[in-house]
């Protein structure tokens, strides 16, 4: 119990709202990339995560992620069940200066603000997975998958990576406190985790009808660009907000995030220019996201040179990686694997190379005389998250496949999931056609 810091609280309330905005941004980003007959379904997969994850988070998810460690696996699910003990106290200071506000705290923040901030990470991690299975996953199966995956895969990994000793529990997760791998804002817990899950789910679900011979072109590139812009905007809450205070760490991570993202966009466009002869708006949007992903784990541990290096590596490598699905034969619809899994791994491992002692994390990477030790720690942390996500997702996916089924029927897939799953269409083409004909007649 204590009095929260007003400045930190204000920044973290804003950061929480920024991170939540990323999920509708992702919905537009993904929605623009699919065909017109599936855009509402794609948006709904992101939006539905905002409901499913919120309910489970406040019931037991926060406790599993931030309760006292149980066997280096998960937090105590009963410690904060229903957020018990996190409400109450004197919310406002009395007129008497000797009677300040006294509420449950997480560091300098009201515990409820910390709960809200971390909830937004959980929401978007689930939403990210949906891009790998666009056009063919039944919506009801997606809801069941979301609930099971967030419980079995995400909550334990969030505990490993985000639960530092003494914040909400006496003993936190093993990656953060005992391994001491650096993942400032979720390169492992969010991006490697979601990318690995997307890969498994795409493999279990199978390829879209006609893939790869049929061209699945984005139906609305302005949606994609809008989504990328909202993601970049919201990502400042994601990265700078992970300082959990209005301080110099937030300022440094805000800047490194910007540097890496702009660099990654240019690197992606450069690859397109040399490989395809044309830089594209889709490439610019994808490069932005690749840079944001890669700088997420490393934004507190690099200087300007490191941010430039990570952005350049992520933009180029992710631009090349998205083509692997054609060579390896897995249908990752919207490049979740190529951008989030590859970008997350690049950013996490490069901490071990370009971490600079003058950055907030004060760690020396290999290129700054630190040897290979930090790189080894980063590899262990990334590998553990990758393995848990691959195995956990496979178990959940096959369980759903052999019970209620994962995939839409051939007829529904051909019709489009907007109509088959939601009885709606994003665009009234008949009405548009009639208006066009009428306009010509009047002219």
From TrEMBL:
<comment type="function">
    <text>Involved in the uptake of ammonium/ammonia (NH(4)(+)/NH(3)).</text>
</comment>
<dbReference type="InterPro" id="IPR024041">
    <property type="entry name" value="NH4_transpt_AmtB-like_dom"/>
</dbReference>
<feature type="transmembrane region" description="Helical">
    <location>
        <begin position="39"/>
        <end position="60"/>
    </location>
</feature>
<feature type="transmembrane region" description="Helical">
    <location>
        <begin position="336"/>
        <end position="357"/>
    </location>
</feature>
<keyword id="KW-1003">Cell membrane</keyword>
<protein>
    <recommendedName>
        <fullName>Ammonium transporter</fullName>
    </recommendedName>
</protein>
<keyword id="KW-0472">Membrane</keyword>
<feature type="transmembrane region" description="Helical">
    <location>
        <begin position="377"/>
        <end position="400"/>
    </location>
</feature>
<feature type="transmembrane region" description="Helical">
    <location>
        <begin position="12"/>
        <end position="32"/>
    </location>
</feature>
<dbReference type="GO" id="GO:0005886">
    <property type="term" value="C:plasma membrane"/>
</dbReference>
<feature type="transmembrane region" description="Helical">
    <location>
        <begin position="142"/>
        <end position="164"/>
    </location>
</feature>
<comment type="similarity">
    <text>Belongs to the ammonia transporter channel (TC 1.A.11.2) family.</text>
</comment>
<feature type="transmembrane region" description="Helical">
    <location>
        <begin position="184"/>
        <end position="206"/>
    </location>
</feature>
<keyword id="KW-1133">Transmembrane helix</keyword>
<dbReference type="InterPro" id="IPR018047">
    <property type="entry name" value="Ammonium_transpt_CS"/>
</dbReference>
<keyword id="KW-0924">Ammonia transport</keyword>
<dbReference type="GO" id="GO:0008519">
    <property type="term" value="F:ammonium channel activity"/>
</dbReference>
<keyword id="KW-0812">Transmembrane</keyword>
<dbReference type="InterPro" id="IPR029020">
    <property type="entry name" value="Ammonium/urea_transptr"/>
</dbReference>
<keyword id="KW-0813">Transport</keyword>
<feature type="transmembrane region" description="Helical">
    <location>
        <begin position="282"/>
        <end position="298"/>
    </location>
</feature>
<feature type="transmembrane region" description="Helical">
    <location>
        <begin position="304"/>
        <end position="324"/>
    </location>
</feature>
<feature type="transmembrane region" description="Helical">
    <location>
        <begin position="218"/>
        <end position="237"/>
    </location>
</feature>
<comment type="subunit">
    <text>Homotrimer.</text>
</comment>
<feature type="domain" description="Ammonium transporter AmtB-like">
    <location>
        <begin position="10"/>
        <end position="427"/>
    </location>
</feature>
<feature type="transmembrane region" description="Helical">
    <location>
        <begin position="249"/>
        <end position="270"/>
    </location>
</feature>
<dbReference type="Pfam" id="PF00909">
    <property type="entry name" value="Ammonium_transp"/>
</dbReference>
<dbReference type="InterPro" id="IPR001905">
    <property type="entry name" value="Ammonium_transpt"/>
</dbReference>
<feature type="transmembrane region" description="Helical">
    <location>
        <begin position="109"/>
        <end position="130"/>
    </location>
</feature>
């Amino acid at each position: 119990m204590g009095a929260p810091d007003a400045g930190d609280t204000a920044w973290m309330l804003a950061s929480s709202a920024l991170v939540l905005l990323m999920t509708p941004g992702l919905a537009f980003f993904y929605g623009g990339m699919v065909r017109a007959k599936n855009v509402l379904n794609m948006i709904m997969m992101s939006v539905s995560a905002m409901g499913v994850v919120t309910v489970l988070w406040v019931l037991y998810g926060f406790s599993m992620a931030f309760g006292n460690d149980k066997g280096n696996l998960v937090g105590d699910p009963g410690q904060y069940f229903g957020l018990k003990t996190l409400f109450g106290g004197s919310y406002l200071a009395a007129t008497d200066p000797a009677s300040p506000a006294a509420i449950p705290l997480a560091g300098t923040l009201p515990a409820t603000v910390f709960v809200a901030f971390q909830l937004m990470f959980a929401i978007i991690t689930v939403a990210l997975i949906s891009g790998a299975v666009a056009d063919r996953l039944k919506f009801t199966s997606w809801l069941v998958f979301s609930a099971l995956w967030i419980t079995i895969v995400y909550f334990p990994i969030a505990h490993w990576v985000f639960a530092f000793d003494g914040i909400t529990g006496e003993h936190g997760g093993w990656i953060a406190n005992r391994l001491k791998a650096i993942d400032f804002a979720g390169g492992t817990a969010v991006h490697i985790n979601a990318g690995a899950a997307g890969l498994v789910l795409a493999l279990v679900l199978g390829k879209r009808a006609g893939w790869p011979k049929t061209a699945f072109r984005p139906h609305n590139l302005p949606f994609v660009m809008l989504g990328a812009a909202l993601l970049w905007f919201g990502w400042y809450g994601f990265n700078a907000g992970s300082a959990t205070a209005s301080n110099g760490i937030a300022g440094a991570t805000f800047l490194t995030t910007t540097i890496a993202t702009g660099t990654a966009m240019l690197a992606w466009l450069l690859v397109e220019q040399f490989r395809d002869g044309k830089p594209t708006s889709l490439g610019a949007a994808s490069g932005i996201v690749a840079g944001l992903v890669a700088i997420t784990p490393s934004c507190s541990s690099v200087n300007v040179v490191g941010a430039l290096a990570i952005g350049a590596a992520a933009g180029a490598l992710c631009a090349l990686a998205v083509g692997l699905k054609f060579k390896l034969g897995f249908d990752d619809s919207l490049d979740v694997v190529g951008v989030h899994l590859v970008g997350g791994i690049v950013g996490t491992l490069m901490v071990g190379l370009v971490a600079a002692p003058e950055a907030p994390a004060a760690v020396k990477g290999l290129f700054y005389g630190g040897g290979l030790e930090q790189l080894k720690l980063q590899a262990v942390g990334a590998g553990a998250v990758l393995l848990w996500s691959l195995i956990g997702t496979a178990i959940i996916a096959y369980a759903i496949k052999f019970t209620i089924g994962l995939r839409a029927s051939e007829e529904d897939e051909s019709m489009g999931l907007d109509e088959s799953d939601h009885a709606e269409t994003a665009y009234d083409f008949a009405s548009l056609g009639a208006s066009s004909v009428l306009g010509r007649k009047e002219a």
